[in-house]
Amino acid sequence: MNATYAPLVSTDGLTVQFPRRRTLGNPRPEPFVAVDGVTVDLRPGEITGVVGESGSGKSTLARALLRLVPFTGGASVCGFDVAALPAPAPPTYRRTVQAVFQDPLQALNPRHTVAQLVGEPLRIHTDLDESGRRDRIVATLESVGLDASFLGRTTREMSGGQRQRVAIARAIIIEPSLLILDEALSALDVTTAASVARLLHGLLRPDSAMLFIGHDLAMVRQLCDRVHVMREGRVVESGTAEEVCGSPRHEYTQLLVSSIPRLLVSEG
To answer: Which of these CATH numbers, 3.10.150.10, 3.40.50.300, 3.40.50.880, 3.60.15.30, describes 9-258?
Structure first.
């Protein structure tokens, strides 16, 4: 745990509400509160987990930090006042904050080659020439366990784990300060997910942070330094991964812990 430096991400009472549909019986319904007054910090050099069941608000929190949904309250991300940013977020913010989602097929154009997919952020955010972009693409692919033979392939020619590695390469190639992983390992089998989790640990820089959104406490315990547990839009428990997963205090966290297998995937 890194307690020396100021947090890269800090929220203060962040709240996201969505309007409900009007009906004859309820012409003025109260809004649905998806995220309710969440206050969390993410420190540099750490992976912070946010866990909870479907509908807990964890992915909506991520979308708020990505400036994809409006919110009230405060959110500072890498020096940006997120609430003051226009929507969609400007290129300077998108270079600082990148995301990897559950289904890479939805995020990656199946007609484009790996070289095109991974290289697109370089074309948008840098002045590198074609040779410089290719060198950076190859180096980034190697950092996620893929070699230059993948450059000409499309996502249709790859396994789920390989596609997710391409999505990660695309997200990290411009070296963002914050990487948001929204259920990024949920669709992978246990062995592949454990392999990608080890990869993510190796990619973390001392001046960067990762926000891991998921529902698998076993994976969170392996991957994360600190954990926030969400239920019905609120954070109900926070602490180190060992504290939250090993000695949960809140009854909801205890229920989540009791539902995971006792035998975690080996690090070997």
So the answer is: 3.40.50.300
